[in-house]
Amino acid sequence: MDVYDVMRTTGATREFTAEPLPDDVLERILDNARFAPSGGNRQGTRVVVIRDRDTRESLVDLSVTGARRYLAQQRNGESPWNPVHPIGVSADEVAAVQVPRATLLLDAAVVLVVCVDLGVVAAIDQDLDRIGVVSGASVYPFVWNILLAARNEGYGGVLTTMAVAEEPGVKALLGIPDPFAIAAVLPLGKPVRQVTKLKRNPVAEIASRERFDGPAF
Fold first, then answer.
1. What is residue 91's predicted lDDT score, i.e. its pLDDT?
2. Which of 8, 41, 182, 209 lies 20 to 30 A from 115 at CA?
3. Where is the Nitroreductase domain positioned along the sequence (predicted)?
C-alpha cells in the first residue's frame, strides 16, 4: 500500500474475525516497526507476544480498574482520567460501575504488550509542574509503526491502556522487570470491517504560523 493510504486508513480496530495472524506475518510487522525512532537511538522497547487464552483473561481482569473509573467519569460528563481536571465522582461511585468484559483482548488473534525501559529514556519534562509526556517519544512511534505495519498487511488493532492502571499486576503476570513501564496493550487481528475513510480536523484547525495564536497554516 502507498504510505499515505496506510496513514489515512489506519483506524482503531476493536472487532476481529476468527482469522489467525501467523507468526511469520507478525514477525514481519515487528521487523519493520522496529525502525521507529527513539531517544538517543537507545531502542528501549520490548514486546510481549501473547496468544495464551488464560493470560489474556487475566489481562481483561486487570483492565477493569481503569475501565471502571473511565466509565464512571464519562457518565458524569467528565473527561475520563484527565490529568488537568480532578475526578468528580466518589470512590464508591466508581466501585459501583459494572464494566462490560473487554472481549477485544480475547477476540483478537494476538495481544502485544509494549514496554519501555525507563532507564534509557530522556524525560526532559520531569521537573515541570505537569504530567510527563516527553518520555513517550521513545516508545509511541514504535507502537504506531506496529499499527501501520499491521494495516499494510491487511490486519488492524488498537492502542489500549486500561490495564496500565494495574501495572504492578500486569508486570507480575508477564514477568516484566523494573525499570520497564507498560506503554500499550495492542490487540491485533483481521478487522470485521476495514475503515477506508477517517474523519479528522483539517490542517487549518491544527496548525498555525509562528505562534500558537498565529494565523492558521
1. 97
2. 8
3. 13-190
Retrieve residue 64's grid coordinates.
477493569
Q: What is the structure's pLDDT at 200?
A: 95
In a domain, 216, yes or no: no
At residue 186, φ and ψ (nearest 5 deg) are: -115, 105
Q: What is the pLDDT of residues 108-123, one digit of tens each?
A: 999 999 999 999 999 9
Instruction: List the CATH number of the domain containing 40.
Output: 3.40.109.10
- Write down the pTM of the prediction: 0.96
User: What Å distances lie between residue 195 and 104, 155, 158, CA to CA?
Assistant: 17, 11, 13
Q: At what angle do helices 53-62 and 167-174 cross, to 10 degrees?
A: 170
* Residue of 101, 110, 198 whose CA lies nearest to 157: 110
Q: Which amino acid is at 62?
A: L
Assigned domain for 35 exists:
yes
